[in-house]
UniProtKB/TrEMBL annotation, chain A:
Organism for this UniProt entry: Poseidonocella pacifica
Family: Belongs to the binding-protein-dependent transport system permease family. CysTW subfamily.
PROSITE patterns xrefs: ABC_TM1
Protein name as catalogued: Putative spermidine/putrescine transport system permease protein
One term under GO cellular component: plasma membrane
Membrane topology term: Multi-pass membrane protein
Annotated InterPro entries: MetI-like, MetI-like_sf
From TrEMBL, chain B:
InterPro entries: SBP (IPR006059), TAT_signal (IPR006311)
Protein name per Swiss-Prot or TrEMBL: Putative spermidine/putrescine transport system substrate-binding protein
Organism: Poseidonocella pacifica
Source superkingdom: Bacteria
Alphabetical keyword list: Signal
Keyword Signal attributed: yes
Lineage: Bacteria, Pseudomonadati, Pseudomonadota, Alphaproteobacteria, Rhodobacterales
Pfam families named among the record's database cross-references: SBP_bac_8
Length: 287, 421
């Protein structure tokens, strides 16, 4: 008994098993179930456990599916570019321009304050602001910038992406800030001594060393945007759709197998996207 | 705690009931035991009101537990979880889907006291002898079955009713007259390019499809054989027209909940949209002009009723019948009519409304005093008339009922495509 316990193998398995069991029960099993159900057929009240490719045939046979997947990638790409731009700038300022650590922590906490409320509230509060008779339009009209209210401010791709950027920029700031703080300051001094300009230091020293942080932020933002449905529903007034909306509609209309099929396709797409992203940066090596 | 509080009252009550039981020959449930009965009712939000539950406790003595869900969940639950409810408060189109599962039991008409006073819409389908029956799932077509255990609907009145009608109304488009500034008299106006980016439709498939059909028919684009039971081809054509309009930017937004429809209208984002009667009053109560516009093609109507679970027997079943008889006795009817709905037995509801309220809500007369709903909000000022007029003018102009089609599954998938298009 004693020997068995002391064996490295057994101890290793024992230590890994709680997490493995949890992941199996709450991650692997549900995904397997969803995959199985996606091949079933359904009527309005019953789900028929018979193997059928009907759901996939309908999904791939409709041009709406392709449009929706395209829209999903479009939202992900634009949101990613904007959150990266803003996130990198904010993190850079916090990490290199603020000298006192107290101040850094204080300003960092300031960034997180909006996250103390629910993200639905943060999202919905844009609606009266951007509306046809909202604050933004009224202000612009009173300044004489525009004569007619801008229609595209609300219930458009613009408002959807605005909300995404607002909701998810912090997910970019945090990992980038974290990696920047761990950059050895003497490297910056060395670059300076070797005659690099501020911009050259940024591009050739800071940026490459921040890549793991950027990649972690990217994974957060891309997966959050690709899996979202509620932001798109509220901010576009149901006029735009992404894959998440497709799934939530199916569920509302009791089409579970069809929703499962769409989920499986989405899951594969997201996994592929992340696999491609990870080809660029080895997160584990550079952390 | 509650036992102590109620003890004196329940003694009085059972005493009273005993006297009543000996005085009246009618079957009366032993009042001491009725306290312990709990009936579980579930349904859509419109009539699942806590006030009704409280009143039942006061007047009938037993407990009514209420659960409000959206129409899709209601349908699913009635069809798949028969053990989870005693009373289902559902719409007639839901009944069409659910009845064949055998989860509900037919009700003996002879036990319904006010049966003779129920309006014709729910019996032979005719409001007045001259009325023409509208398309769609008209309540009387799914209102009766041949025999107690039958799972198919009867074509005429029988002794077995599927649902006891409780609440119904005629729906149409809501408009902002101050922003439109001209008369609106057809459903086709919803897709009029004049309102580009200022129109909306509701994102609930079984109701939205009927609004769409009213619009396409009014435009003269599609001549439906039966709007309430479209062919695949008709469904495709309908969605083609609406998808084109959507891509051209006709709609500002779609709405799914009552509050969303109110906000869209009140903020001026939308000036014409499918709407429900109480949403109009909610906009008006903010001081914003809003009209429930009667249209030439008529109304899209809906009706709800209560059905009994198959599992209900013995004393619980008797209690359910008492509840139904009480429901039709007028208090609930008055409560609902003062919110703008109609009661299945209007004449009993009249006893629970003032002459002013009855005149405004039912007869289409000018209000002589301010009209308030049961929650105290003022709905209309003296001199105002209800949009669309009297009960007979409104319910007499029904063009179609909310419906379940044979091609429902197909329609639902196309609906999902339309929303994502």
């Amino acid at each position: 008994m004693d020997r068995i316990l002391k064996s490295r193998n057994v101890m290793g398995w024992a230590q890994a098993s709680p997490l493995a069991l949890i992941l199996f029960g709450f991650l692997v099993l549900p995904i397997l179930t969803i995959t199985v159900v996606s091949f079933w057929r359904a009527t309005e009240f019953s789900i028929i456990p018979a193997f059928s490719l009907e759901n996939y045939a309908f999904l791939f046979g409709s041009d709406v599916t392709y449009r929706v997947f395209f829209a999903t990638f479009k939202y992900a790409a634009i949101t990613w570019a904007l959150t990266l731009g803003i996130g990198f700038t904010v993190a850079f300022y916090l990490a290199f321009h603020i000298r006192s650590q107290t101040m850094q922590i204080a300003l960092f906490l300031l960034c997180t304050i909006p996250f103390w409320t629910s993200n639905i509230i943060r999202m919905i509060s844009w609606i009266p602001f951007l509306g046809r008779n909202g604050i933004a339009n009224q202000t612009l009209i009173s300044w004489g910038v525009i004569d007619e209210p801008l229609e595209w401010l609300l219930y458009s791709d613009f408002s959807v992406i605005l909300a995404f950027v607002h909701l998810y920029t912090l997910f970019m700031v945090v990992p980038i800030f974290n990696t920047m703080m761990r950059i050895d300051r003497s490297l910056l001094e060395a670059a300076r001594d070797a005659g690099a300009s501020g911009f050259q230091t940024l591009v050739h020293v800071i940026f490459p060393l921040t890549k793991p942080g950027i990649m972690i932020g990217t994974i957060f933002v891309v997966t959050l945007v690709m899996g979202d449905f509620i932001t798109v529903r509220f901010m576009s007034g149901s006029q735009k759709a992404n894959v998440g909306r497709l799934i939530s509609n199916d569920i509302a209309l009791l089409q579970y197998p069809s929703a499962a099929a769409t989920s499986v396709v989405l899951l594969c797409t997201v996994l592929l996207t992340i696999a491609i992203l990870l080809r660029f940066v080895d997160i584990r090596k550079e952390l | 705690m509650s036992k102590i509080r109620y003890s004196r009252r329940s003694i009085l009550k059972s005493g009273g009931a005993a006297v009543a039981a000996s005085a009246l020959p009618a079957p009366m449930i032993w009042a001491q035991e009725i306290k312990d009965i709990t009936l579980r009712q579930f349904g859509t939000g419109v009539s699942n009101l806590n006030e009704v539950g409280q009143k039942v406790k006061e007047e009938l003595g037993f407990t009514l537990e209420m659960t409000a869900l959206d129409s899709d969940s209601v349908t699913q639950r009635a069809a798949t979880q028969p053990g989870s409810f005693d009373i289902a408060d559902i719409e007639y189109w839901i009944c069409k889907k659910v009845w064949p599962t055998g989860n509900l039991q037919a009700m003996d008409v002879s036990k319904i006291k006010n049966y003779d006073k129920i309006v014709g819409i729910f019996k032979d389908g005719k409001l007045t002898p001259e009325s023409v029956v509208a398309q769609g799932t008209a309540p009387h077509t799914v209102g009766f079955v041949e025999s107690e255990g039958s799972t198919s609907f009867a074509s005429e009145e029988t002794n077995w009713m599927t649902l006891i009608p409780t609440i119904y109304n005629a729906d149409t488009l809501g408009i902002r007259p101050d922003l439109i500034k001209r008369p609106i008299s057809n459903w086709s106006e919803l897709l009029n390019p004049e309102f580009k980016g200022k129109a909306s439709i509701l994102d609930i498939s079984s109701i939205g499809i009927m609004d769409m059909a009213m619009v396409c028919e009014s435009m003269g684009e599609i001549a439906y054989g039966d709007k309430g039971n479209m062919t695949r081809n008709e469904i495709d054509q309908t969605f083609a027209i609406f998808t084109e309009a959507k891509r051209a930017g006709q709609f500002r937004a779609f709405w799914k909940t009552f509050d969303e429809s109110v906000n869209l209208m009140a903020s001026g984002e939308v000036v014409i949209q499918s709407m429900w009667s109480p949403a109009i009053t909610a906009v008006k109560s903010r001081g914003i002009p809003c009209v429930y516009q009667p249209l030439e093609e008529g109304y899209r109507s809906w009706g709800g009723g209560i059905g009994l679970s198959k599992a209900l027997t013995g004393m619980e079943l008797d209690a359910a019948y008492e509840y139904i008889n009480w429901y039709l006795d007028g208090w609930v009817g008055g409560f609902l009519m003062r919110q703008g709905y109609y009661s299945a037995v209007p004449e009993t509801s009249k006893n629970y409304m003032s002459a002013n309220e009855w005149g405004y809500w039912f007869e289409g007369k000018e209000a002589v005093e301010p009209i308030a709903n049961p929650f105290g909000d003022v709905m209309a000022q003296p001199g105002e008339v209800r949009d669309g007029g009297s009960f007979y003018e409104r319910m007499g102009e029904v063009a179609c009922w909310n419906a379940v089609m044979d091609e429902n599954q197909y329609m639902v998938r196309k609906w999902n495509e339309f929303i994502a298009a």
